[in-house]
Amino acid sequence: MENYLVALGVTAGLYALMAIGLNVIWGMAGLVNLGLVGFFAVGAYTSALLTTKLGVAIGVGMVAGAVAGGVAGALVALITARLRGDYLAIVTLGFAESLRTTASNETWLTNGTDGISGIPGPWRSVLTPSEFNLAYLALVVVIVLIAYLLAQRLSYSPFGRVLRAIRDDEQVAAVAGKPVLAFKVLAFAIGCTALGLAGALYAHYTSFVVPDIFVPLLTLYIKMALLSGGVGNNRGAVLGGLVVVIFLEGTRFITPYIPWLGAVQAAALQQFLVTAALLVVLRFRTRGLVPEPPDHPILRRT
Amino acid sequence: MALLEVRDVTRQFYGVHALNGVTLDVTPGAITGLIGPNGAGKTTLFNCLSGVVPPNTGRIVFDGQDITGWRADRITRAGLVRTFQIARGCPRLTVRENLLLYGAAQPGEGVFTALLRTRRMLARESELMARAEAIATRLRLGAVIDNPAAALSGGQKKLLEIGRALMTEPKLILLDEPLAGVNPTLCREIGERLQEIVADGITLLLIEHQMDMIARLCDHVIVMAEGRRLTEGTFDEVAADVTVQDAYMGGARWAS
To answer: What is the pLDDT of residues B76-124, one digit of tens each?
Structure first.
């Protein structure tokens, strides 16, 4: 049970980190990205391959995973520069799916659907499994905290103000003298760096990556985390990550009390409860549990 | 010497010739009126001048620099800024944030400077804050400065458009119908503000359909019709011009 709770904590931390990343892209700049899991996969595979095939140090692998996520984000933003709304959504979704298909088929690199196993974990040789879990939770918590603080700084800065202006009206931001495309690319790159880092952290925690993990459902869970926590609010992103994981896992404990349900029905009920909870949140807290503040003062008011 | 020189500018949209070779000059230190019937190409000309839509052919020289085909943000930084016909402030930003957004040369717009919260960033922010507050007070927006722009009245939104343009420290402001849908009292007030702005050395090019305001504010009026400059002169001169009357009436003469 203890190990389960710690693992839950690590998962929640990773969701929070990804929600913080999504908040820069979607919450602040208003850009749709339905390919979140693709950038998560880029980070996971980059770090996994570097550490298992080239024997790179774990820390270096994680940084490389984050950077690879960011670079992938910048590239996707440049390719989709002229798209927005639904069109941007479709292309980003396609990006993540084609990445997953590539990982399944390029066996020489990714070992295909068998996945990559034996990915090293930090301090694994000197710690017992439960100590490793705890140490990893501590690492994730520290990283989420740092990511949160950095995201807050961006939010309360002229940079964040330009992103929010782009969210409201791109043409106004351009007439205000801001190079809009550069800001969009930066927002994507920053958000995808967080997603890539989350992927790398995931790979070194579970020691195993396989294409089947990187399905679009994960993207939707991250979106759900930010939506229920509060789009445009970093605190909401962290809270949303926690809430979604607790809910996804928590519903697992309800279904055994309904004995006449089969396994398939139980899983369906779990999905149904998650959906219902999201609807309730959005009905009564339309802007999330921690709504975006009405303004973002950079200097203290006198 | 003209502050803005427009030479043979054309722009088509799917075969429609919105601009058919416009040539005109804007002299510095005054309010120049730009009038003409709906569809004459006035707003398209503003879009070309401000970089929102690039011209197909022709040349635009601003302050001695050829700015033809420049991107909107670069044109604004060069000192030419436009307002929008339908006031489109960033509705979810406050009035203050809308004004600050338009501030030029902000170090804090760089990611690393923003993360480090450097002293330079904070110093520039407080300079811009002082400027934004001064402009808001001058435009009678002081009381609503921390309200979201979406909550402003129609007239206040028009004032915010002007305020945001002023934040860029421009040499020339293109005003696209700043008085449309504004009540007569506020119209006169906006007119006074515009005269103050010109007195500060900023040049204005004004699209407007309220002829009494054009007559009152503009020393020089340019008339456009069918994507071309039709004529120009003082308001009384162009108002007396038969071709101008034809353009507005669609060429149909009732009295024969």
So the answer is: 999 999 998 877 778 999 999 999 999 998 999 999 999 999 999 999 9
Nearest CB neighbour to A176, from listed B51, B101, B129: B101
Please report whether residue A302 resides in a domain.
Answer: no
Interchain CB distance below 8 Å, B115 and A296: no
Selected for mutation to probe chain B from A156, A287, A298, A302 (highest B CB count within 10 Å) is A298
- Residue B167 parent element (H or E): helix B154-167
Q: In this predicted model, what pLDDT tens digit does every residue of A245-274 receive, in sequence order?
A: 998 888 888 878 888 888 888 888 888 888
Q: Report A:56-95 residues touching B (Cβ under 8 A).
A: none
In a domain, A289, yes or no: no
Which domain range does residue A68 map to? 2-215
| DSSP-derived 3-state class of residue B34 | strand
Give SS3 for B216: helix
Q: What's the half-sphere exposure (Cβ side, CA atoms, 13 Å) at B128?
A: 29
Domain-located, residue A276: no
Number of domains in chain A: 1
How many residues does the structure list for chain B?
256
Q: Do A161 and B88 touch (CB under 8 A)?
A: no
Total beta-carbon pairs less than 8 A apart between chain A and chain B = 109
**Single pTM value for the model:** 0.91
- ipTM for this prediction: 0.89
